[in-house]
Amino acid sequence: MAAVIDDDLWSAIGDPTRRRMLDMLLAAGGGTATSLSHELPVTRQAVAKHLGVLHRVGLVHAAPIGREMCYRLDDVQFARAVAQLSTVGASWDARLQRITQIAEAIQRHQGADPGRQNKT
Amino acid sequence: MAAVIDDDLWSAIGDPTRRRMLDMLLAAGGGTATSLSHELPVTRQAVAKHLGVLHRVGLVHAAPIGREMCYRLDDVQFARAVAQLSTVGASWDARLQRITQIAEAIQRHQGADPGRQNKT
DNA sequence: CGCTTCGCGCAACCGAAGGTTGCTTGAGTG
DNA sequence: CACTCAAGCAACCTTCGGTTGCGCGAAGCG
Fold it and tell me: HTH arsR-type domain: which residues (chains A, B) (predicted)?
């Protein structure tokens, strides 16, 4: 079921660039738009925008240090996002396994009836 | 690390509407653009486009039956997508837990030195 | 058999999001 | 004090999710 926030978190981690940014932040423990952009295939501006998005959904917080703006992960919110990932994955996985097993069972029982398809 | 295909799968399951469609296909075992659109907040056309995307990345295959076009999940590819989800989630989770524990350890040891931040 | 119906695919259009370039501003540093 | 370098802002482009409107062709029914 999960809450609606789901969507924000998902769209945040759904973007490949943002995913890589989260990855880097998680690994480095923090960074600026410029430092992140050095290892990403996009410009500093794009990174800044993504950081803005991540900040809005609470996945990072910003700490201005001198003329630099250091962004760090919000552990709690990030953990929530990860949990959501796992949840969806797990539920899909479970259902997939169920129907796969059912299909196998049917095949084993009926052996040769490929023309049988239950319409609607 | 995972392969590059990652990205296609991710962008496919990253969209909330597509996620719901996959959900429905998984539950119903198949469906047409029209039937799916009946239970989605978008038009048939949008659903058709999404089905096109899913088909291009191999998550579904289409079976034309008379004038209807029945789409069904590709179990293998779908399983791969799910696996990717789990992988990313798990790796993030692991790292998160590590740094969380480290942080706790530092706090416990040094008690009061919040100004310490490793730059670069 | 021919007409109607219903589902599909195609094309045009729209708004939002990701990305780029260019500029300005302001904190550190020589 | 002059210079440098990171941030932030604004304008613009392209892609994507979504809509409306259209025409076609297969089923269904008189």
Answer: 1-93
